[in-house]
């Protein structure tokens, strides 16, 4: 029998707000001394009360709008009750029946639409570290704002999941609401995976939740393993059931974390410590041009191919840079296509002056320096002649590199390729 | 002059007149505590100050660097790193903490007997309960062991012990005073309030502690409270007072009823118009309360999971365990709609009962408690009988409206309190009516005989 895969995805993204979701401790916890960003509220001490962070609410609304969601005019926080050492109050303040953003979508490159069920606001837990026989709790992360984006079970392959997750990550970064770094745990993926006989329209009577997987690659591998495991089980006539599984990267297999019997009853109820969120749909937030729109515009306005555009719009900084160079190229009749080719092929560093890129493209046919050894000699000389700029750059002053680029240009009498110059300078200065 | 007889207002005046010093004031109270606390078990901890005006604080209100136990073994060694907002506000008004008072564990109880640290006794008769849960705070004021005290009221925990101990107990509107630093029992019901020797004292303290602190999102910024001492109303002309027939039904001790009826007659003599009103959903109050309160309890007490506070969950007392179990059940999947959600709907009906009644009247009066103080141990084996003793205080808690208990007489030597309820956020009118009644009667001047 043939089977098809049914997958729904839950993404948690940590917002980069200044302060935490329900207290005014700094939310910038990464790499900080444990338990230094804490107060009675995020430690869950008796008598403490939560206060809503409006910046987080705005960022959640931005995410919702970027995904085409409806913003609920009335929204409520609820308590999700469960016991875990990383949860100091014994419940997480989350949203359940009245999420902030509902019913959105995200389109994949194939044109397939993934329906977004909701984007809601909640708080992160503390961080547990297990050392030897001991478990350590760092409350710096406790109550950092999280947004959870939940899809309908619309994915039918691990590749679709990867594309969705990457697109979502790109949107978070465009919005500037999160670093969305998987390895750091800014962005976390959970997949609900099941399989059903091909042609069957109703959802399978079970789903397996894949949790605590911290990279796109591992998630894809876990889904593929899981699909295989489930099909084999079906073929053997085994009954699959609701469970939570993790990924063992060493053994390249999923493993059981929690079975249906151990499933939590979260006993959600409206958070009595917080007022209802009212008129949320009236809140004004700014949205940048999003990757999908930008892609369309770059393709139609600049007549570029989709693959190039994909690279150019990868980050908002890259896209802005490209457009600056296009602007600079207008007087010199350098076309967007030439610029796109140059930027993509040379992997241009964004600190290069756009005018210099135009010069380079124009000089491309003329006699640019091609010998690496000679190039390096010029670069070293430029650094020696301008030690101060070199020191400044090493101390973190990005702009100081401009003076050194100028030096190399002067020494080479304009025959150095700017993109190449930056690369060599960076290498020498590291 | 006996220093410990004075009200807060009188004490402040006496200090201004240099009739005695703050040191003498504190010494007078500390001496009295020294003499009487062992018999009454009012204080869990006494602080020996020589400055400020001594007030007692219910031990569920967080005090920085002073042990705060909530009357529970589970917090028997807990020292909070921060003050509750009400404590901070008192301290900045020259109030000092003379001690932390005994209470039913996590404010769960109506008799004071659920404390892990022994029960408090009623100063009017040490064989009787003082009421609860703010047992120690009520007894402290009744026995003149503090100038005034702070308590919390979730379903009657200020008004009921005030009634049983013969002192003035005031529960402000929910959202008038910050709950920050109150160890939560039921977050949508908990309200900090006062035990005082006069209504004017209650008004003065409320002026200090009311208003937003930026820490409790449910505090409303409606009408800033008056901090000045107002000239008391001497009559009640033009005031309409509602008497709910549901508060005079089965279960009300006829002797208590007689005292309350006399008090209502007194209000009429003072010029008030007495109107019968109906609060038709009163009979569902206790049931609704025990579902909503216990649901919130089951969540609020989850933090005492044995990981952070040094004690295991086995250290919870019987009543606390009972409510955690009840609430966990009421919120469970499959039961939520039948219990919690339905209770939330009926809560709205109870709120609407009051809104309807307050279209016709300015305040509502009735008994606080169906009986006077009962014998220690009498209801300990019958939780339901204990729960029903709060039938007249619970509806106002569910509605979030202000409520006052003011001494209005005695039955067989035990005090009876008159309950005055007001419109949401109209705390002032409740205090006005209470004060006019108090000025016209002498019940509040009586003191228990502590020569046991």
UniProtKB/TrEMBL annotation, chain A:
Function: Allows the formation of correctly charged Asn-tRNA(Asn) or Gln-tRNA(Gln) through the transamidation of misacylated Asp-tRNA(Asn) or Glu-tRNA(Gln) in organisms which lack either or both of asparaginyl-tRNA or glutaminyl-tRNA synthetases. The reaction takes place in the presence of glutamine and ATP through an activated phospho-Asp-tRNA(Asn) or phospho-Glu-tRNA(Gln).
Entry's family note: Belongs to the GatB/GatE family. GatB subfamily.
GO molecular function: asparaginyl-tRNA synthase (glutamine-hydrolyzing) activity; ATP binding; glutaminyl-tRNA synthase (glutamine-hydrolyzing) activity
Gene label: gatB
Domain Asn/Gln amidotransferase: 320-429
UniProt keyword terms in alphabetical order: ATP-binding, Ligase, Nucleotide-binding, Protein biosynthesis
UniProt subunit comment: Heterotrimer of A, B and C subunits.
Catalytic activity: L-aspartyl-tRNA(Asn) + L-glutamine + ATP + H2O = L-asparaginyl-tRNA(Asn) + L-glutamate + ADP + phosphate + 2 H(+); L-glutamyl-tRNA(Gln) + L-glutamine + ATP + H2O = L-glutaminyl-tRNA(Gln) + L-glutamate + ADP + phosphate + H(+)
Assigned EC number: 6.3.5.-
GO BP annotations, alphabetical order: translation
Alphabetized HAMAP family for the sequence: GatB
SUPFAM superfamilies found in the cross-reference section: GatB/YqeY motif (SSF89095), Glutamine synthetase/guanido kinase (SSF55931)
EC top class named in words: ligase
Domain of life: Bacteria
Protein name, UniProt field: Aspartyl/glutamyl-tRNA(Asn/Gln) amidotransferase subunit B
PANTHER family, A to Z: GLUTAMYL-TRNA GLN AMIDOTRANSFERASE SUBUNIT B MITOCHONDRIAL AND PROKARYOTIC PET112-RELATED (PTHR11659)
Transmembrane segments: none
UniProtKB/TrEMBL annotation, chain B:
Active site: 58, 133, 157
Superkingdom per UniProt: Bacteria
GO BP, one annotated term: translation
EC number of the protein: 6.3.5.7
Catalytic activity: L-glutamyl-tRNA(Gln) + L-glutamine + ATP + H2O = L-glutaminyl-tRNA(Gln) + L-glutamate + ADP + phosphate + H(+)
InterPro entries: Amidase (IPR000120), Amidase_dom (IPR023631), AS_sf (IPR036928), GatA (IPR004412)
Keywords: ATP-binding, Ligase, Nucleotide-binding, Protein biosynthesis
Amidase domain sequence ranges: 46-431
GO molecular function, one term: glutaminyl-tRNA synthase (glutamine-hydrolyzing) activity
Key word Iron present: no
GO CC, one annotated term: glutamyl-tRNA(Gln) amidotransferase complex
Pfam family, one: Amidase
HAMAP family listed in its UniProt record: GatA (MF_00120)
Family assignment from sequence similarity: Belongs to the amidase family. GatA subfamily.
Functional description taken from the UniProt entry: Allows the formation of correctly charged Gln-tRNA(Gln) through the transamidation of misacylated Glu-tRNA(Gln) in organisms which lack glutaminyl-tRNA synthetase. The reaction takes place in the presence of glutamine and ATP through an activated gamma-phospho-Glu-tRNA(Gln).
Known partners and oligomeric status: Heterotrimer of A, B and C subunits.
Name of the molecule in the record: Glutamyl-tRNA(Gln) amidotransferase subunit A
Gene name tied to this protein: gatA
């Amino acid at each position: 029998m043939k089977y098809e895969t049914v997958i729904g995805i839950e993404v948690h993204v940590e917002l980069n707000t200044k302060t935490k979701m329900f207290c005014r401790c700094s939310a910038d916890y990464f790499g900080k001394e444990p338990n230094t960003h804490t107060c009675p509220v995020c430690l869950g001490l008796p008598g403490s009360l939560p206060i809503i962070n409006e910046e987080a609410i705005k960022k959640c609304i931005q995410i919702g709008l970027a995904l085409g969601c409806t913003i609920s005019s009335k929204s409520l926080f609820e308590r999700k009750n469960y016991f875990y050492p990383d949860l100091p109050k014994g419940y997480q303040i989350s949203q359940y029946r009245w999420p902030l953003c509902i019913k959105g979508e995200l389109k994949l490159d194939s044109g397939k639409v993934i329906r977004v069920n909701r984007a809601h606001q909640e708080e992160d837990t503390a961080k547990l570290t297990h050392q030897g026989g001991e478990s350590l709790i760092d409350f710096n992360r406790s109550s950092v704002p999280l947004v959870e984006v939940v899809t309908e079970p619309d994915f039918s392959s691990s590749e679709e999941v990867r594309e969705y997750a990457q697109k979502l990550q790109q949107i978070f970064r465009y919005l500037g609401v999160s670093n969305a770094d998987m390895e750091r745990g800014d962005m976390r993926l959970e997949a609900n995976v099941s399989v059903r006989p091909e042609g069957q329209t109703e959802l399978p009577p079970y789903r397996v939740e894949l949790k605590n997987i911290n990279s796109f690659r591992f998630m894809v591998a876990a889904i593929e393993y899981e699909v295989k495991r489930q099909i084999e089980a079906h073929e053997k006539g085994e009954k699959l059931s609701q469970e939570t599984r993790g990924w063992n990267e060493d053994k390249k297999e999923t493993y059981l974390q929690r079975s249906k019997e151990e499933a939590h009853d979260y006993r959600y109820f409206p958070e009595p410590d917080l007022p209802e969120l009212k008129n949320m749909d009236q809140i004004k937030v700014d949205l940048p041009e999003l990757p999908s729109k930008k892609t369309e515009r770059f393709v139609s306005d600049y007549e570029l191919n989709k693959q190039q555009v994909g690279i150019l719009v990868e980050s908002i900084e890259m896209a802005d840079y490209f457009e600056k160079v296009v602007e600079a190229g207008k007087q010199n009749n350098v076309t967007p296509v030439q610029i796109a080719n140059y930027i993509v092929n040379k992997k241009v560093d964004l600190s290069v002056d756009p005018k210099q890129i135009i010069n380079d493209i124009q000089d491309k046919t003329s006699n640019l320096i091609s010998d690496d050894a000679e190039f390096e000699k010029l670069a070293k000389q430029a650094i020696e002649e301008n030690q101060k700029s070199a020191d400044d750059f090493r101390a973190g002053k990005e702009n100081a590199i401009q003076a050194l680029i100028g030096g190399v240009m002067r020494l080479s009498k304009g025959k150095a390729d700017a993109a190449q110059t930056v690369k060599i300078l960076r290498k020498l200065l590291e | 002059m006996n220093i410990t007889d004075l009200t807060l207002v009188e004490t402040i005046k006496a200090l201004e007149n240099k009739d005695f010093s703050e040191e003498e004031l504190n010494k007078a109270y500390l001496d009295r505590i020294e003499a009487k606390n062992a018999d009454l078990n009012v204080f869990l901890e006494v602080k020996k100050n020589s400055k400020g005006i001594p007030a007692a604080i219910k031990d569920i209100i967080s005090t920085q660097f002073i042990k705060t136990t909530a009357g529970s073994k589970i917090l028997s060694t807990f020292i909070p790193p921060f003050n509750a907002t009400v404590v901070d506000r008192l301290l900045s008004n020259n109030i000092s903490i003379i001690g932390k008072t005994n209470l039913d564990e996590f404010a769960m109880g109506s008799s004071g007997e659920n404390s892990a640290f022994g029960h408090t006794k009623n100063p009017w008769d040490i064989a009787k309960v003082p009421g609860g849960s703010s047992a120690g705070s009520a007894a402290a004021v009744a026995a003149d062991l503090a100038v005034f005290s702070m308590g919390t009221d979730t379903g009657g925990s200020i008004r009921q012990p005030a009634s049983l101990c013969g002192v003035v107990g005031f529960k402000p509107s929910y959202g008038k005073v910050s709950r920050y630093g109150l160890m939560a029992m039921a977050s949508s019901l908990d309200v900090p309030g006062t035990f005082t020797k006069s209504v004017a004292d209650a008004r003065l303290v409320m002026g200090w502690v009311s208003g937003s602190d930026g820490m409790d999102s449910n505090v409303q910024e409606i009408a800033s409270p008056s901090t000045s001492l107002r000239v008391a109303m001497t009559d009640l002309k033009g005031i309409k007072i509602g008497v709910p027939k549901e508060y005079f039904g089965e279960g009300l001790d006829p002797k208590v009823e007689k005292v309350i009826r006399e008090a209502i007659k007194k209000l009429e003599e003072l010029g008030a118009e007495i109107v019968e009103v109906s609060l038709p959903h009163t009979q569902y109050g206790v049931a609704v309360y025990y579902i909503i309160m216990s649901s919130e309890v089951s969540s609020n007490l989850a933090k005492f999971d044995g990981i952070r506070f040094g004690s295991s969950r086995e250290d919870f007392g019987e009543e606390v365990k009972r409510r955690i179990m009840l609430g966990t059940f009421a919120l469970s999947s499959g039961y939520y709609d039948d219990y919690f959600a339905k209770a939330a709907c009926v809560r709205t009906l109870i709120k609407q009962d009051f809104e309807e009644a307050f279209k016709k009247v300015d305040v509502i009066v009735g008994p606080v408690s169906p009986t006077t103080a009962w014998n220690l141990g009498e209801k300990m084996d019958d939780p339901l009988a204990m729960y029903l003793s709060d039938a007249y205080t619970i509806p106002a808690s569910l509605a979030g409206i202000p409520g006052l208990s003011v001494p209005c007489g005695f039955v067989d030597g035990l005090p009876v309190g008159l309950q005055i309820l007001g419109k949401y956020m109209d705390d002032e009118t409740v205090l006005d009516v209470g004060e006019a009644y108090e000025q016209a009667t002498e019940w509040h001047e009586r003191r228990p005989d502590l020569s046991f």
